[in-house]
Design a protein that fits this description.
Layout: H1 3-15, H2 19-24, E1 28-33, E2 49-52, E3 69-74, H3 75-79, H4 85-103, H5 108-113
Parallel strand pairs: 1-3
Antiparallel strand pairs: 2-3
Length: 117
């Protein structure tokens, strides 16, 4: 999947989020990178995505005016899964939802229990 095809898959996943999620994400930036760079903390091998910011459940009035939160989606680790294109698109969407869940304050252990981990 080329970079532009991958970006289109991410955009398709964003476009198909419920309206209430779109409204909640107005101060979040979604960034596509080939791989995690040195400025991104090492979170483990094969990192598909990463949420960087303050989850809604931890925010206070002191956080007003902070830089926008960022969701990173990493292309090469997705491609390394060697999935057929329809399954790869599903995995991209799942990664996006997983990182959005972190923005809402949902932790990995809960995501695993509900099948999104």
């Amino acid at each position: 999947m080329t970079p532009s095809e991958f970006a289109a898959a991410v955009q398709h996943a964003v476009d198909h989020l419920p309206v209430w999620v779109h409204e909640a994400l107005e101060h979040i930036e979604i960034v596509i990178m080939d791989e995690p760079g040195p400025d991104i903390e090492e979170e483990g091998e094969d990192l598909l995505g990463l949420y960087v910011g303050i989850p809604l459940t931890e925010r206070s009035v002191e956080d007003v005016g902070e830089l926008p939160d960022i969701i990173y989606i990493f292309r090469q680790p997705h491609l390394a899964l060697n999935l057929p294109e329809p399954e790869l698109r599903e995995e991209v969407a799942k990664t996006l939802v997983h990182e959005i869940a972190h923005y809402f304050g949902i932790e990995d252990d809960h995501l695993e229990r509900i099948g999104w981990g």
